[in-house]
Amino acid sequence: MLAFIRQKDFGRHYIRYLVSYLIVLMIPITILTVFYSSRFMKKFYAEIYETVDLELRQTSTRLDNEIDSMEKIVSQLTLTDAIHQAAAAENLLDLKPAIAYLATLSAANPFFEDIILVPAGGDYVATTATTCATDYFFSRMYPEAASFSEELIRTTPAPVLFFLPEQEKMFFSWPLYTDYQKYNGAVLFLVNQDSLRQLTSDKLQAYQAQTYILDDSGSVVMTMGDADVMRPALSGFFQSGQIPPSVSIGDTRYILRTSASYENGWLYCAFLPDSQTTFSQVSSIMRDYLLAMAIILFLSSLAIYFLQKANYDPIRRLRNKAKEISPEISSKNELSDISNALDYLSTENTVLSTKLESSLSAVKNERIYRLLRGSYADRTDFNMDCSELDLFLPNPCFTVAVLLLHTPVTDLDVFADDIKKQFERFPVYYYLHTFHSNQVIFLLNLPEQSFPTAKELQKLQTMLSKKKGLVCTIGTGSVIDSAEQIPQSYMEAASALDYRFVKGNGTIIDFSEIQTSQYSGIVYPHQEFEVLRSALASRSESNIRAAIQDIIRFMEDNSLPLYLARSICFDLIRLVNAQFRSQRNAGSSPIELSGMETAGEIIEMLQNWSSQLAILPDPASKKVDMNEVAEYLKANCLRCDFSVYEAAEHFDMTLPAFSKFYKEQTGQNVMDYTISLRIQKAKELLASSDLPLKEISEQVGYYNVSSFTRRFKLNQGVTPGEYRKIAAESRKESP
Fold first, then answer.
1. Alpha helix positions (H), 539-612
2. Most buried of the four, 107, 274, 574, 664, by CB within 10 Å?
3. Is residue 475 domain-shared with residue 592, that is, in the same domain?
4. Domain limits at 587?
5. Cα(222)–Cα(407) distance, integer angstroms
6. HSE of 182, CA atoms in CB hemisphere, 13 A
7. Tens of pLDDT along 377-404?
8. What are the E-state strand segments in 91-150?
9. Helix (H) or strand (E) holding 152
10. DSSP run (H or E) holding 677
């Protein structure tokens, strides 16, 4: 082996790693062997015991159900005059209706063979098939039932059993009483012991169990098994009142499992011979297990040896490559050489990666800002616009939570990303203020409006306090089901956060907690907004400006709380801008409104906005040239921060209108078209250059290689690396 190592120029790490892998292999095998051998026997026995206990309980339940069926038949006979007909019968023909009725009752339950109606003092008994004299029935047909006693049946509330051992049958008997508790006779159910045995499972026989059913007096009702040697032991159990876990009969030890019926107190016992074949297989299984472990250890050691040789070859080549990258650094330790080279490359790459990550974070932050601003009509538009940024809203409902830190944090972006990972049950995205360095806005995408979020936020607050020593206050808005209402939820969350001056820091404040007490009785200018909508529909500039001034005047004349002033301002600006999108009228977003601390500031801002408001003819009349759209997409779609939303804004259209227009003109989805342009450019770069995949992905508009690789394979059916190999082979084959 040493000669082989010298020949292959292997370093000292080869032997170290080989021995380490063998030790690592031995540790789990040793632990598994000890653990398996120590616990296997207990688990094996416990599984058998649980199976037997379950079968006994099921047998008890089945028999209880059959006894319950008998009791229901007794109740039906009590309510009918069948017993009266049998008692008053003067001859055998008079019992014919009773026989038919008993046959009907018996046909529905195959558990018992026959039902016998024995009237008190009557000369005849009726069965499901025939009738005969009472004396003849008990003396000739069933002489073993000579112990039949009316007095016993009459005084016993539970069913009385009469055994017929020679016929392997038994009678279950119930008394019949009138409404005045007058004894009227008895009902006997003839049951074959085979019917009882059918209630037990074949699993008990598979375990060679000797099964007994004992009534509440300790009499054996049924036994099943190859040998009936447990009766003396059962008698001793009832006399002592204790049931041991095991018993020895001769040289054989039996494990006893029991189950008692809650209905009638009957006891179900199963004796399992401890030396049966099932248990004796354990030793054989253990031997096979140890042999298998030895074989696995041997084969694994061989595999490690040969794989180590094969796997070490790339390390040797990496060391040679590392020397080429940084020849001034060289040592006898191959891993040190590789590490030094990687450090050098890492240093060069850190600057580029930092710039790229910062750009990606900024782009994502901007898309979330648009969502909080209400720029997207619904989550479908957002998902389409952000499909290449790994931003996706799968759920229909939303709520906004604003987290205020009372302790400074060095890197708020990293901090917010760590918090985002704490939420597991629904997607969460965050937005960082440009003017609130101690706040993080979280958008929670919920599966339903009634989804509880307070518990998740409480866990987050507790984690920040215990693990990071940070104190924070959280304000939450209403749960809404439309992307256009997200700004409203944000402003509610911001208002709830302002309420911390009343409720205190370090709390979670939901907007619903303060809405009733603080905003009760506040009037919203619904009528003024209706007038504005009518003016916008008529496109009369004078009416529009007058309606806007009426709303501003309403805000001046009423002492509005800050939240309501923010809400009216946002609704006003959004309503007007939605009608005159192409004019790009300026206005405050919910984020900016949350920074205004008084209603007066908001009113002053509205006055400035209204004075600069541009109202022009309907922008729908403007024609969009499809060639200009195509040129714009080709010129901009390869940028990493490209957005379909920005393309729509460039042509003074909403995102849904732009998507609809493009599809009507080309028959193709605008996002699919931009993706096809990116993939086509990527194919050209892969086939004509040796650029790394990371650089190619950036040149075609993807921030990270994984997103680029996933999209490329989805579009082309192969990965970028595989496509590059195919293109290279094609060039070699071409003349």
1. 541-557, 562-579, 590-594, 599-611
2. 574
3. no
4. 526-617
5. 77
6. 9
7. 888 888 888 888 888 899 999 999 999 9
8. 114-119, 124-126, 131-133
9. helix 150-155
10. helix 670-688
